[in-house]
């Protein structure tokens, strides 16, 4: 799981185009979760347009511009075919917010997230409007994160918080 990383363009070369969107609150959809307010990564990576200039219909076509699969070469020159699935989209600009990239003929997978699924609303205390919107969608954020981990990466998770039990520990060292 790669959360809000600039690594996306390294794996999928068509994602070299990025807009700078500092502290932008966006509406995202993933499976049955619709219009969920989430914080976007500072860079919004988009597929590089084929034409030298952006088209006027850019917003409606950016999701369609992503191929179902791509071939990339590793450092040894071997070609690998990657399958690309759009799991979720940012609704305003219709850019992918969650992508599943699978190595064909392998069980290797990467989920790229361009929205902050890992950050609690309390991280945005300085902006009341954003914090309040994120507090309202916090349960959905956690459910989406749990579903991504379970459905696509095969990890078990729960949004229920179990009580913390501390045990004795010993530090062995020179400090």
What does the main sheet amount to?
Answer: 7 strands, mixed
Helix proportion range:
10-25%
Separate helix tally: 4
Q: Output the radius of gyration.
A: 19 Å
Query: In sequence order, what are the helices and strands, one letter per element?
Result: EHEEEEHEEEEHH
The SS-based structural class is: alpha+beta
Low-confidence stretches: 51-60
How would you summarize the topology of this molecule?
Blueprint: E1 2-3, H1 8-11, E2 17-20, E3 25-30, E4 33-39, E5 43-46, H2 58-61, E6 69-73, E7 79-90, E8 95-103, E9 109-113, H3 128-136, H4 138-153
Parallel strand pairs: 1-9
Antiparallel strand pairs: 2-5, 3-4, 3-7, 6-7, 7-8, 8-9
Question: What distinguishing features does this structure have?
Answer:
alpha+beta, 175 residues, 9 strands, two-stranded antiparallel sheet, seven-stranded mixed beta sheet, 31% strand, single chain
Please tell me about this protein's structure.
The protein has 175 residues and is α+β, with helices and mostly antiparallel strands. The chain has helices at residues 8-11, 58-61, 128-136, 138-153, and strands at residues 2-3, 17-20, 25-30, 33-39, 43-46, 69-73, 79-90, 95-103, 109-113. The protein has one domain. It has 4 helices and 9 strands. The protein is globular. The model is unreliable at 51-60 (pLDDT under 50). GO terms for molecular function: ligase activity.
């Amino acid at each position: 799981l790669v959360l809000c990383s600039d690594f996306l363009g390294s794996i999928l070369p068509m994602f070299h185009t990025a807009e700078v969107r500092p502290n932008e609150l966006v509406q995202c959809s993933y499976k049955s979760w619709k219009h969920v307010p989430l914080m976007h990564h500072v860079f919004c990576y988009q597929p590089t347009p084929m034409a030298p200039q952006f088209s006027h219909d850019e917003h409606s076509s950016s999701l369609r511009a992503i191929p179902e699969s791509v071939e990339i070469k590793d450092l040894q020159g071997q070609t690998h075919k990657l399958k690309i699935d759009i799991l979720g989209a940012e609704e305003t600009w219709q850019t992918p917010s969650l992508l599943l990239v699978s190595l064909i003929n392998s069980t290797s997978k990467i989920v790229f997230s361009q929205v902050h699924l890992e950050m609690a609303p309390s991280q945005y205390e300085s902006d009341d409007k954003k914090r309040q919107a994120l507090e309202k969608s916090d349960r959905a954020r956690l459910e989406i994160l749990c579903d991504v981990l379970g459905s696509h990466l095969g990890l078990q998770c729960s949004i229920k918080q179990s009580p913390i039990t501390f045990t004795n520990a010993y530090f062995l060292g020179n400090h």
